[in-house]
Every structure is written in structure tokens, then in C-alpha cells.
Amino acid sequence: MSAPIRLLPVLLLAACRTDHSRTPPGGGPGHHHGSGGAEASGSSAEGDSDADGSSGGASGGGHFDLPPPREINDGNFATASVCATCHANAARASAMRTAAGDAVAPYDLWQGTMMANAARDPVWWAAVRAEVAATPAAATAIEAKCTRCHAPMAAIRNDLWGNVGMSLGALLVDDDRAQLGLDGVACAACHQIGTGDLGAEASYSGHPELTTTGHIYGPHAMPFTMPMMHHTGFIPVEAPHLDTSAVCASCHTLDTDSLDQDGSPSGAHYAEQSTYLEWRNSQYTTEGSDVGSNARSCQACHMPSFDGHGNAIATRIAHNPHGGDFGMIAARSPYHQHTFVGGNAWVPALLRDYASELRPRGSAAGFDAAIAWVRDQLANGTASVELNRPTRQGDVVRIPLVVRNAAGHKFPSGYPARRAWLRVVVRDADDAVVFRSGHSDAQGRLLDAEGAVLPFEQVGGPFEPHHNVIDADVHVQIYEVVMADGAGAPTHRLMRAASDAKDNRLLPAGWRSDGDALDRIAPVLGGGDDNFVGGADGVRYDVLAPATNGPYTVEVTLLYQPLSARHLAELFAHDGEEIRALEGMLATLDRTGEVVASVTAELP
Q: Which terminus of the chain has fewer CB atoms gathered within 10 Å of its CB, N or C?
């Protein structure tokens, strides 16, 4: 069976295969620094990160100074350290381990993820600042909307906070609300999502039902309630809906209202992210009446429940507060690892390297593990490249390629800053390069054959169209979204977007041209392409390669950037403390692109 999909929850989105739902490389990440926390005694710990691995600040003229984590439990929400008392790995407990003994406790795995750091993500801070800088009159509304998914415990239930909307500034004051917000997409957020409007339109754009009734929902039957009630005040409740993709829908189906420069609504709405809708329109959907054999939920791929040998994990889901096993708790299965693995290896690196500014919970080892998970998934379960039989017509070699998407949604999916592209290099018998398309520099900017930055990477420049045939090295096949404003002109500010000027992201297998929500998810190619179909795209390269200089070889690589060079250039054109800080942080990061797939062959 071809690779079924890994669906993504937060922000990038790559794929899974049933034989690829595995324990992260090396088991689980190391627990937080020091000997505190459940690893030693079962007690919770704060300030899990330290200065190890941190450069002590960005050099781009800006600086972050986020409050360090503190433990909060106000009866409505709680920071994750409250849950760590029983749901972090402990040396004396067999709970939350694979059969091989690998540590897979939810708290420990979660700390290094994009979910845990959704409100400490420096890219998110910079992006929101840029939107506010472009439309300052709408600052309050922009920040209130953007915090709903990135700081849900502080931003969704405004009724608990005097009906005052959340803002970036409020995350910096270090009160209880800020601490809950900075905990990102944490335990007490996801596990309090109720069934009201679940998976329906009313829940989209960051509007899940957060019940705050004191119930903590989980998928397992007959929970042992006393310990959690006694130590946290919350009551565990069986809730099968926690195993459904609809739980992910509210923050992975995002619409924004297009705004004019003065902040007034233009009347248009833009589908910023539609990952859940893309998945529903694929062969991987578990919803509706036409569920096929390849059906996979988001959790099945992004929270794998199998160990490194492909065996289903069965383990106790908690230990006692003193770090020993509960004798009366049986092993549970399926046991979903809280890795939330997607496609972003860059932000975990920034969180690791600038821990003294961003102050995440996760340790350097935890972020290293998260980066390894991402790169493993990108390289082994996201997409593939096939080289069909090349042909020669005189001095021109025709090289037909097929790129196949193994993800359960478009690739790339999510926020329109991501892109994948093909790098094609042809060499002659003397190993001299005779053709090169898609080469990039250390900043991730795409170059022509002479090494010059291509115009579509420049601020205010054009965008690269979708291609059926490429016969010049100044053209690149880039799979991406390019937003358009109300007049149809390309824009890189989300608040201006009213439609797509381009959306040629690879479709998932089983894509239906008569499916639901096509007004949000239909591709925009700018022309016809019979080779652009569900699960694949075909493109041909015509290369001048006289037979007398052969034999020739071709190397094709599919690469991915969670932040495209053009997106960053447009972002850095705005000013702001967090924007300058991010610019400095990224200056030393290798942004050439993450390798997703490659193939090499000899040409006729």
C-alpha cells in the first residue's frame, strides 16, 4: 500500500505511513534540565529550559524578553507543569514507556513541539507585529484573533477575564492570564475541547468550545479519577471525540477578514489555513459516508501510537505523584505520543538557541529531538520524486518528473509562508554543470545559473508562476500560495488578502473536484495542467545537452522551507522590535531548505 498520510496539526504539514508511525529517533527527548520534576521525584518543575545552547540574544537590533514559565491552576485552566506531576516520565516508573523502555510521557514529548511553544514562537510574534504595522488601526482586533489559537487558554474565554480581549502586550505582564497564554496549546486547552459545534463552521477560526467545567477529556474508558481530582481539582472523563480530527479543526481552518489600509473591512474573506478541509477532501478522511481503507485521523499521523518497530504502544498513562507506578492502573492502547510532528525544524532551533530570551519549557535535548522528528518525517513520509524515461530530441534532453504527495492534506499546508520546490541539476561527462534550476543560497533565496538572486525573491518583485515545462534556469517549480488583495494584485500581508493569485501546492491523494469547501481549497494554477492531479504533479524539464558531451547525469531534489525567503524579505521590510529580533536570530540559521526527496539518474 502506498504511504498513507501524516496529517498535520499546527502549522506545517507533512505525511505519514502506517509503517512510519514510530517512536521519535532515539526514543523520547531528555527531560528538562536538572534533577527536578517527575524524572526525579514526580513533582512538577518550572523554568525547564536554561541558558545551555543559547547565544544570549539576537544580533539584529531587537530582543525578546518573554516571562519564564510559572505554575498556574485557577480552576478553569492550568499550566502544563500541573499535569507533569503524573504525566512526565519518572525514573522509578514503567508508566508512559514503550515495550523497549523508551520514555514517551506526554509532558516530556510536548515541551519541544510547536504546540507547546505556539505563544513563544518568535516567527509568530514578528508576523503579528508586521500585520499590526501594516494596519495599525486594527491592532486590537488582529492581536485578539491571532492569540486565540496561539494562546488559547488566555484568549478564547474572554468571559473569564472581564471580556477584555487578549493582546501581545498582555502576554508580557507575567500575571496568571499571561502565564496561561504563554503555555501555548497546552494540556488544559486541548483536553477541555467539548463537542459543541465540533468540526462545524462555527468552531473554525479559533472558536472551539472550551468547557472549563472542571472536566479533562481523554479517549480512554473508565478513567481512575481520584488522583487527578485530589491533586489538580480536575476530573478525568472519557471522551471519544478527543481521537477525532474535528478536535484539530478549529485552529487548522482559519478565515480572516480582509482589511483596507485604514483598518476597515473590505468585505472579502480569506482562507488563511484550510488543512482540515483539505484532509476532508482526500482519501484519508475518516468522516462522511465514503470512508476508505486509507482513512487516517490527524492524531494517527501527528501523534503516532506505534513504537520504532511498528508495534502499538500499550502503557499506563500516568504514575503516582511520588514517581512510582499506580498499581491499580492498567496499560492503555492506543497510546498517542504527544510529538505533534509537522514540518518546521527551524523554530525549534530558534527556541533552543535563544532560550535566554524566549524562555521555553523545553530543554536543548528536547528541541533537538523535535528537529530530528521533523526531518525524519520530511525525508520518509511526506513526498517523493520520480524520474520517468527521459528522451532526446537532437541536442535537447526531455526530463519528465512526477512529484507525489504522501500527506493527508496539501503539501505544504497551513500558514502561507511555506514552500516546496524542485532543484534540478544536470552535469556532463566532465561533471560540469550544464543546467541548474532551484539552487539556493544560505539565506534560502533561489538563484539563477550565475548565482544572482532571482527577481521573485525580492521585495515587491513578481511571483513565479506554476509550470508545466521548464526550459530555462531562471524558472523554478515552486509549490506555494501567493496571496492576492481585493484588486487581484499579489500581497504578502495577510490582512490584505482576499484570494489567491497562486495555489499550486500538491494535492492529497483522492482529491475530489466536486468536494465540499472548494471555494476555500481549490487550486489556483493560472492555466490548465492535466498533470496536476490528486496526489501528484508532473513537470518536464527540457535541457540543452548535446550528445557529444555525454553521458549526462541529472539530480532532482524536492526541498522545503517553513519560511520562504520571499516571505521573510517582505516581513523584514516592516519595523518592530520582534521583527528585528527575528531577523537577527535567523541570520546564522542555514535556510537552504530541508530535503524531502531526491533521485539521480543517467540521461540519454
A: N
**What pLDDT, on the 0 to 100 scale, is given for residue 60?**
58
β-pairing verdict for 235-238 and 215-218: parallel
Integer CA distances (angstroms), 301 to 17, 223, 298, 381, in order? 8, 25, 6, 10
Which cell numbers in the block locate residue 463? Answer: 511571483
φ/ψ of residue 521, rounded to 5:
-120, 0
The per-residue pLDDT for 151 is 98
Classify residue 281: in a domain, yes or no: no
Count the domains in the chain: 1
Grid cell locating 559 = 526541498
Residue 82 one-letter amino acid: V
Q: Which three cell numbers stand for residue 107?
A: 509532558
The answer to whether residue 541 sits within a structural domain is yes
pLDDT at 382: 98
Backbone angles phi, psi at 119, to 5 degrees: -100, 0
Q: CA 380 → CA 216, 311, 367, 585, 596, distances in Å?
A: 35, 18, 20, 29, 8
Amino acid found at 588:
T
For 218, residues 6+ apart whose C-beta sits below 8 A from its C-beta are: 191, 236, 237, 238, 239, 242, 317
Contact, 297 vs 534, CB < 8 A?
no
Q: Which residues of the chain have pLDDT under 50?
A: 1-59
- 3-state SS assignment for residue 203: helix
99 found inside a domain: no
Q: Indicate the residue type of 76.
A: N
Domain region containing 594: 392-603
Strands 469-470 and 536-544: parallel
In a domain, 320, yes or no: no
